[in-house]
Amino acid sequence: MNIIQFISRRYLFSKKHISLISVLTTISIIGITIGTALLIVILSVFNGFFEVIRGYLLSFDPDIRIELVDHPTMAFDDDVIRKVQDHPEVVTVSPYAEGKVMLAFQNGRNEVISVRGIDTATDALMEQMEHTVESGTLDLSVQNGRPGVIVSETLINRYRLDFGDEIAMLSPTGMRRALTQFSAPRVSRFDVRATYDLHQIVEGDVAYIDIAAAQRLFNMRNEITGFDIQLTDTDRAEAVKAELQELLGPEYLIQTWYDLQKPLYDIMYLEKWGSYFILMIIVLVAVLNIVGSLTMIVIQKKRDIGVLISMGMTPKKIKKIFQSQGIQIGLIGCGIGGFLGIALTLAQQEFSLVGLSASFIIDAYPVAIRFSDIAIILVGTMALCLLASWYPAVRASSIQPADAVRDE
User: Fold this and answer.
1) CA-atom Rg of the chain in angstroms
2) Which helix (H) or strand (E) holds 363?
3) Helices 262-300 and 371-388, packing angle to 10 deg
4) Are 209 and 140 in contact (CB under 8 A)?
5) Per residue in 124-142, pLDDT tens?
6) pLDDT tens across 298-339, in order?
7) Strand runs (DSSP E) across 232-323, as ranges?
8) pLDDT tens across 236-259, in order?
9) Under 8 Å CB-to-CB from 381, ≥6 apart: which residues?
């Protein structure tokens, strides 16, 4: 039997009577339990929202995007595509052409939007569009002399457009030519083929057209804006980015899905860990009770401590007795709180106990348990408990046997 563990349990959980010490110990355990459970639930909710937002954004963002650092466009280079495709974790490489255009309507209303030309044969966006397109067809080919376009649902509602309606686009290149050559601006006309809805996750409207039509619209000829890459594992994007950067050289700007929406993802991480440190205050308040309860045990058991020291127990072992009490309180609180937190999270995941309003993009609070977060919570809580036991342990180890017996 471990004498240190035995004595620490007897001091901490005395069955003879209920005292102020046992009340403070119970309050400490309850506080740690509540704090641990809340931390697990709250961080799981933040993880859930992160996964939801990332899922919606990845419907339209690639795992990796490649562009030139110093130029808005690049030549369509088969060698670059071949190098990228040879990477074992790359699934598809799709070129795209992107730019701003002005929509011109017959009623005189104009609006500037982003237009993105995609390769319908290779772009993974087409597969994602099947799940996000509200209505219409995904055919962007030329029909009746006009190519197709997919626009946002908000744009359709704002201008009361319908499928098959014609919209006119004027690119900056066309406007510049009209001004410098004193000629009528070249207007490109498209048929509305389908609509999509992004649920207002990102701002602004983006229209999708075929890449050949985009090259004509922006006068790019054999140029493109960049390449979109889909990987076998999205979470490996950072590692693949480093490998591709070494392969292609510094003249290429390589961005992961995180880089493309970095301000949004950074804010979500900041909110998550800000909440963690704020909620740790609950645990800290509970931990302060440990200092009080263990200090009172030291005062109450001063004679016993003196006897133990006189019998040959070293101050180091005395210190371990009280540190062990702090660890035991932490283990009980973390164990119960961890169980409750995980149970509540799993119940929310399975049964959607707490719902959201009907106007939101999901029906209930999303949750996602990450064992790394649970480990950080438990390690942080146990560290506070161990720190709280330091002062009582040092005070107990400094007791002199003669003084303990004389004071008694």
Assistant:
1) 32
2) none
3) 30
4) yes
5) 888 777 776 766 788 899 9
6) 888 788 888 888 888 888 888 888 888 889 999 999 999 999
7) 252-256
8) 999 999 999 999 999 999 999 999
9) 32, 35, 36, 280, 283, 330, 333, 334
